[in-house]
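Second attempt. The first submission of AAA family ATPase had a stray character pasted in from the spreadsheet, which I only caught after the job came back as garbage. Lesson logged: always re-copy from the clean sequence file. Corrected sequence (292 aa) follows.
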Amino acid sequence: MSDHLLEHVRPYLDRDPAERIAYVRAPRWIGHQTAQHAHRQLADLLSRPPSLRTHGLMLVGPYANGKTMIAERFAVEHLRSAPEQRLWMVQTREGAGLGHFYGSILQALRAPGGDLHDVGRQAEQLDHLLASLKPRMLIFDEFHNALRGRARDVEAVFAFLRRIGRQYDISPVLIGEVAVYDFINATSEMASRFDVFAVPRWQYDEDYLMLLDSLEGALPLTRASDLSDERLARRIFNLSEGLIGETVAIVTKAVIAAIRSGAERVTKTCVDELHYRPISQRRNAPMRETLL
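This time the job returned cleanly.
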């Protein structure tokens, strides 16, 4: 009866509905092919020999498509297996200029950020920490936040990325939307320092059907849903618009509804009854008119 589930998921069928729903809602790693390839590139970058002109990596794609989860999973695996920490993840702050950018890094290194306007003091503090901690990689999530200022502010951020490679042998990894790719490739000098790894929208193909099968095996329903069945899979894909984050959200909501209703399987009717609106349609959704 539970052959469609992964072995570690089957015991959850014996839990009460509240516990099962909590498990369904919990974040989960989906080791799809693109994610595995990205991890190999990150591992190669982390294990590179010392260099005076380090190379970096851009992890670029649309929102809600798993870029951050790919990087966070890699960071967690590194922390579990490495004898000492060699990479840190930085949540790039919104706001222009080096003050905000330095503050993001200081926060990631668990240091007080200080006065955003005292950039010189922040730079000294940051240099001391980088020399002491000796990271080999800094991963900047939502790096596009650092690109919204004046041209001179953006150039100052890029100058910092070049300097940490030369001075501290650090490889930067930039995660973000297509703006990151555009800014880096605006000059040959920066373009020559970064490889790009694309995390594009999914296509409706065998890989997407395998993704749905993986999700089905990880979510505790008593009955098989056959998420990769053509009609159901196509419906989920169209609603998700090829974004893995949206795909997971749709399936998660449908699984929770199936648990609550006692149906114990996801069907196309179940998905339709969610009245789920794709991201591209939300701006013009009828609900918006009721908010005016």
